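Page header: ASSEMBLY MODEL / four components / 392 residues total.
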Amino acid sequence: MPKVTEAHRAARREEIIDAAVRCVLRDGYRGVSIASVIQESGLSAGAIYGHFVNKQELLVAVAERVLDGRVADLAAAQRRNGPLSPGELLVALIDGLRHEDVSAAIPQVWAEAAFDDDVRAVAERIFGRVRGILRTELVAWATASPGRVDGDAEEWADLVTPVVLAAVPGFLVQRAILRNFDEAAYLRALPVAYRR
Amino acid sequence: MPKVTEAHRAARREEIIDAAVRCVLRDGYRGVSIASVIQESGLSAGAIYGHFVNKQELLVAVAERVLDGRVADLAAAQRRNGPLSPGELLVALIDGLRHEDVSAAIPQVWAEAAFDDDVRAVAERIFGRVRGILRTELVAWATASPGRVDGDAEEWADLVTPVVLAAVPGFLVQRAILRNFDEAAYLRALPVAYRR
DNA sequence: GTCTATAATAGGATAGAC
DNA sequence: GTCTATCCTATTATAGAC
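Prediction written out in full:
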């Protein structure tokens, strides 16, 4: 079978996901209706159900789209010279986040994860990858200069990584809730709070 | 008019909110239907609409119920002797949180805040109170022993408070997403990560 | 104030033509 | 593969009896 057809099919699928993401940004994750996706995509019910067995499967694909891509920012930061401090790592990660429109939908996906186990699995997987990269960098940073950390660098990193990672939900939640949240100040504060 | 009637009326209202909170914990914020609240409360549609003009107003009351109460933990910690370190403050706050069932619904409310401005206002108000207490304590801690902080204690606290506060969403989100999230380890990590 | 019954609508999903 | 039309269920909110 011709390769073009497969590619076109995949492209149409992505198109539908794109439209659904826009719906989530406008109406919230649970506020998305098939009718809204139809309108936003310019397609029809038949087209959508030809690519997704039901609404839930579409929304899981949306969750994946929304959460993914954050890994790239960290991987890029990783490639720089020398180990980065916890604060510097977080600046790289969050500064990447805040310029992506889809990031506004991330808290939506986290909330949904508590009730849809497929969404939860997607979130856990991507969260795990980010945490893994972060942990590696923290070990490198703790090892680079002795005395930075009490005890073993790996043990320290295992313990501290979840707390360091908390800066990400902290940023997104405060940005969503507080009318005049100062994003730039938050980024400046990261190296201060986590400098050691 | 008799005072008892007023009190009874208020009590019935709280009863309905209680039932709605249980619905949120079971079905998610947007998954709550009037039918589910009717079932959970053992009341009827008429009873509910006699206390709330519509579903949205009920859900705003639910948001308030879910978010409030966190301030008490911090205020209690505040009363202890001597200024607490950032890590110790967070342990008090989060350890209080994790033993309350309703805390599982907090990420739901944060997600909803992006789309319902009344909910957002509730979240902003309560977040603001917690942040205010935290800031006061951080200033006291920074002032207590010189050299802990570069520059002015108040300026430092203003900058750092939002990042310290991030540990709360960080905890709740990771607990919701990660299948084997180690709550106790997170609490142990707080003083390590924020000790200075 | 609260109940039962119901109106009015919205939303998910399918059928069949093309 | 996609479109139009439609079925069916779920849901919000109201009306009127008690």
